[in-house]
Amino acid sequence: MSDPQLQFSSLFDAEQALEQLARGAVTAGDGGWNWAQTLIHCAQSIEYSMHGFPRSKGRLFQGTVGAAAFAVFRRRGRMNHGLTEPIPGAPALDAGADPDQALARLRGAIRAFREWGGPLQPHFAYGALDRGQYELAHAMHLANHLSAFSAAR
């Protein structure tokens, strides 16, 4: 899984790769965060899409720079962002977090997103996204982060 070009167009695709990684001994590349931190970060993003992000970049940013960035990511079919950039206002990621608990949290966040019937909250950078756009954003986000890891068999 160390291919920096991982691309997912759905959460199903992302989950398949996640489970493949989780079955092996996960080793990090040069992503900066460890496996558990990365899983928690990805779970936070999905959770915040349902419940609201702690801080946003503001409507002007979301409507210009944020919307343009998301459009580029959609066209390319993948996201590329700093792999140690925290979500603004999110709790710090614990380097000693339990990987199994972090994996369970991410699995739970994905399941909750699938089952979510309420309104989705504006993304902190991209602004308002519909369900399909959010699923793609989450899938691309996971692809970007999972690309930093590989699994030994």
Task: Provide an overview of this structure.
- The longest helix is centred in the middle third of the chain and has 18 residues, at 59-76.
- Helix 1 (11-22) runs parallel beside helix 5, helix 2 runs parallel beside helix 4 (99-115) and helix 2 (35-51) runs antiparallel to helix 5 (131-146).
- This protein has helices at 11-22, 35-51, 59-76, 99-115, 131-146, and strands at residues 25-28, 149-152.
- By secondary structure, the protein is mainly alpha-helical.
- A two-stranded antiparallel ribbon has the order 1-2.
- 52% of the residues lie in helices and 5% in strands.
- It has one domain (11-152).
**Number of beta strands:** 2
Indicate the low-confidence ranges by residue numbers: none
Total helical elements = 5
Distance between the termini: 12 Å
Radius of gyration: 15 Å
Beta-strand content bin: 5-15%
Overall geometry comes to globular
Mean pLDDT: 92
Enumerate the strands of the largest sheet in spatial order, edge to edge or round the barrel: 1-2
- Report the biggest beta sheet as strand number plus sense, adding barrel if it closes: 2 strands, antiparallel
**What string, H for helix and E for strand, traces the elements in order?**
HEHHHHE
